[in-house]
Amino acid sequence: MSLISSIAIFFIIWWTTLFVVLPFGVRSQIEEGRVVPGTERGAPAHHHMLRNIIWTTVVASVLFSLFYINYVGGFLTLENIPLLPRPAAG
Fold this sequence. Notes:
Layout: H1 3-21, H2 29-32, H3 49-73
C-alpha cells in the first residue's frame, strides 16, 4: 500500500470516527440551566472540540492499525467470508 493510499484511508477512518465521537459527553444548554438568548435550547453548552479531536485521533489510529495489520497479514479476505456469492468462472 502506498503512502498516499495509507493517508487517504486514515483520513476516511478519522473523519468517520469524528462523527462517532462528537456526541459523547455533550450536555445541552437546557441541561446546564444556562440558555443563551437567541440560540436553540438543545444546542451544546460547551463543544470541547480539542478533546474530541484527541479522542478521534487515538481511536482512528487504533482502527487504522487493525486495518493495516489485516491488510499485510491477509487475515480477513473476501474468500474468508462465508455465503458470499462467487462470480461464475468463464
